[in-house]
Specification:
mainly alpha, 5 helices, single chain
């Protein structure tokens, strides 16, 4: 998903509801189509934070499903960051996407979402060291190798 202040775009080919079926909002939409358009077919405007389209949509959702929680536009920002991180975006990409001044600001908020990075680095270093040891064992200049002459 790509969320912005002026419109919401969904990759409709991969969006499913929690029952595993295609979401009706995505029906007949191309992968980069907006889910919702303004009356003139363009982007939705940010709207009034007290009575705009977003607040109205949340109220309708909460009436339809009493268990749904109140959502604010800032929640979508966190969702977009979380989805980007889970898709493999590095911290600098997320920093630019969110408009943070520096990567430290992004890490202060989202560091817990990068838990596999240390394991990935450890695995990569272990593989690299094993490859180097294997190559070293195949060389003869030191007289220790077992490789062909």
């Amino acid at each position: 998903f790509t969320f912005s202040l002026v419109g919401i775009i969904a990759l409709s080919s991969g969006y499913y509801d929690d029952q595993g079926t295609n979401d009706p909002a995505c029906k007949d939409k191309a992968g980069d189509d907006r889910l919702w358009n303004s009356e003139n077919g363009g982007f939705l405007r940010p709207g009034n934070s007290q009575s705009g389209w977003f607040v109205s949509a949340v109220k309708r959702a909460m009436r339809t499903d009493p268990d749904s929680r109140r959502v604010i536009p800032h929640d979508l920002r966190h969702t977009a960051a979380s989805l980007a991180i889970s898709a493999g975006a590095n911290v600098k990409v997320v920093q630019r996407m969110l408009g943070h001044k520096n990567a430290a600001e992004t890490l202060n908020i989202y560091a817990a979402l990068f838990p596999d990075d240390l394991d990935n680095v450890t695995d990569a270093l272990t593989r690299q060291r094993a490859q180097q040891l294997w190559r070293d064992s195949r060389e003869e200049p030191t007289g220790r190798g077992t490789g062909p002459s």
